[in-house]
Design goal:
The complex is a heterodimer of chains A (114) and B (112). Chain A has 114 residues and is mostly beta strands. Chain A is built from no helices and eleven strands. Chain A has strands spanning 4-7, 10-13, 19-25, 31-38, 42-51, 54-57, 65-66, 76-78, 87-94, 104-105, 109-113. In chain B, a hairpin with a 2-residue loop joins β6 and β7. The chains are: A mainly beta (114), B mainly beta (112). The A-B interface holds A 4, 31, 35, 40-45, 48, 50, 56, 58-59, 90, 92, 96-103, 105-108 and B 1, 6, 9, 32, 34, 36, 41-46, 49, 89, 93-100, 102-105.
Chain lengths: 114, 112
């Protein structure tokens, strides 16, 4: 089954404790991206990757890191989480860029930073 | 950069009524306009998209219209059903480019 898998789905952590949210897709997509969803703000792009070892900033990259060492994986790293990073996070992938065609989203990771 | 405005933020209709959600965009270079539906507890899913070389596209009860001159596009859902209840996002982007700008979303509630 074609899918984007995120882990963990739910996480409560404390300020400053490094965490990683993993994302994996099984569709051989070149493009992957991370979004955060906040009430009243919609979906905002954090980082994206057009291919292995190619990453770029989205609209709200501060406080986040990403890496793309393999085509199927695109982890989101919060080196020192802060309460303003409490949010619902989505990973997405597609064959081309986001403006090319359908984005396939994961089911989301709800993060709470205390 | 691109800015997408979406209205209304919430919309309540009776089952069987029509629902219309409107979006405007700012970048005249944008030529790809998808709509995503997000059900409770799930990720957004593409329901329909339109490119700037067409003015309207239909898929069963769903249609999207595009007015490039006015820089606005709309989602039309006819004969609404309770399972249409969800959050709907419009977005704008440029074909071949890496980013898509989303609207803030519309929560649609269809009452039986």
């Amino acid at each position: 089954e074609a899918q984007v898998t995120q882990n963990p789905r739910y996480l409560i952590t404390v300020t400053g404790k490094k965490l990683t949210v993993t994302c994996s897709q099984n569709m051989n997509h070149e493009y992957m991206s991370w979004y955060r969803q906040d009430p009243g703000l919609g979906l905002r792009q954090i980082y994206y990757s057009m291919n292995v070892e190619v990453t770029d900033k989205g609209d709200v990259p501060e406080g986040y890191k990403v890496s793309r060492k393999e085509k199927r994986n695109f982890p989101l790293i919060l080196e020192s989480p802060s309460p303003n990073q409490t949010s619902l996070y989505f990973c997405a992938s597609s064959f081309g860029g986001a403006g090319t065609g359908e984005l396939f989203f994961g089911e989301g990771s709800r993060l709470t930073v205390l | 950069g691109e800015n997408v405005e979406q209205h209304p933020s919430t919309l309540s209709v009776q089952e069987g009524d029509s629902a219309v959600i409107k979006c405007t965009y700012s970048d005249s270079a944008s030529n790809y306009f998808p709509w995503y539906k997000q059900e409770l507890g799930k990720g957004p899913q593409l329901i329909i998209d339109i490119r700037s070389n067409v003015g309207e596209k239909k898929d069963q009860r769903i249609a999207v219209t595009l007015n490039k001159t006015a820089k606005h596009f709309s989602l039309h859902i006819t004969e609404t059903q309770p399972e249409d209840s969800a959050v709907y996002f419009c977005a704008a982007g440029i074909s071949g480019y890496s980013t898509l700008t989303f609207g803030k979303g519309t929560m649609l509630l269809v009452s039986p």
